């Protein structure tokens, strides 16, 4: 997670570097530390350092780190020649290195030579079966080829060992949603909520999945998670507000014939609707009529 | 003793200071030697998995109130059922760390390397100090001490009449041996190989039994009372929205 101060620091450095104010190396170090994706800039500024022998040698041993960073950025930007040159330099300096071997595998992958890349990765995994990065690359490769089911298989195998890696759970959840396997996705989102209970986005995504699954119990749960999203975001999440309205109307339709004594917090929906109307009035007043029509259709408008 | 002993300044220049300098240099040398000899340890898949398992179980315990009761019960069953739960360790299957050590020569080798890099220089310096400086009074501390400190400060001098505030050279060696840790962590960084306390921790941690922590985690998971927090959130959301709208 990137904190706010780091973000402002990053953007300050970015404008400074872009306008030729120097500090390229500091910028690249910060990018590496925060693990943000700025491949085009990294490529541009990194190359300008690497092509200048004086600047390059002043880095000392960090030179090789920069080579690696630029190589990955170049692959991301599809300038494979640059990546190839960087990897060649690294190969010369560190023969037999697994880290360079990983880069070579990535280069093969970037070229689209799937079978060769697969071979490279599996030989690397034989040496060190616990290399998380390579496991993840394999998943990404399967996904890039369109073999989503294979990707799921790899991810499940990976999560069997590294089950506390929440980023992978998130990836798995998104893949399941894309395949409309909502029950599995719900499980993954529960796992995410467990690992980071205060992140509203996971509550929201879980609520979405529950709402999509349907059924009275799921709808009620979905409403609860939309409510928690509202609480965690301080009522600023429009999607959660809409979610409340949709859930209440769906619950109302299902529970029409049944007894209504367990109807909880009838006020929440009307409050959500009013909040929505206010939001639209302030930010997109020309679309207000659409909103009121939609809310009327849901019969939650007060 | 009525009158003070006079210590020759040559003792300061040729015993006290050289001893400290040599101790520092040897400490630095030891750090780099052990760094050279350290072999990169490949972690065992099972141990990694158990570590991650404990993290996940702990997450479940702390975040239990944020998922629906049914999901919580399913997970708890998955972790701690008696047949094939992940946290359930069958009795008698726990690997004995002692046996593990003997079966894995690398482990014993590692231990030996660590011990060698510690013991050899220590024996050598101790022999050196004993040979050249035995029986010296090397320094005087500027405050009086009780008789209890005699064995600590006057190791190697068998005179009960000398005031306790005088320090013998061998004791000075021991004081340096244990007292230089702070200096080493300053010049070599926090995780230096000379840190004896860390080594002690590792030694005692050697008998660390992952199955025990799995069992503990299972027990604490079993007694968790699930109290779903989400129904409360509806009221809280209402309050938030009211505040926003007002």
From TrEMBL, chain A:
It is found in: Endoplasmic reticulum membrane. Keywords: Endoplasmic reticulum, Membrane, Repeat, TPR repeat. One of its GO terms (cellular component) is EMC complex. Gene3D superfamilies: Tetratricopeptide repeat domain (1.25.40.10). Residues 100-209 form the EMC2 TPR-like domain. It comes from the Eukaryota. It is a peripheral membrane protein. Its main location: endoplasmic reticulum. InterPro entries: EMC2-like, TPR-like_helical_dom_sf, TPR_EMC2. SUPFAM superfamilies: TPR-like. It holds the Pfam family TPR_EMC2. PANTHER family: TETRATRICOPEPTIDE REPEAT PROTEIN. Belongs to the EMC2 family. Component of the ER membrane protein complex (EMC). Part of the endoplasmic reticulum membrane protein complex (EMC) that enables the energy-independent insertion into endoplasmic reticulum membranes of newly synthesized membrane proteins. This is ER membrane protein complex subunit 2.
From TrEMBL, chain B:
One of its GO terms (biological process) is protein folding in endoplasmic reticulum. It is a multi-pass membrane protein. The chain crosses the membrane at residues 14-33, 119-143. The keyword ATP-binding does not apply. GO terms for cellular component: EMC complex. It holds the Pfam family EMC3_TMCO1. Keywords: Membrane, Transmembrane, Transmembrane helix. InterPro entries: EMC3, EMC3/TMCO1. It is found in: Membrane. Belongs to the EMC3 family. This is ER membrane protein complex subunit 3.
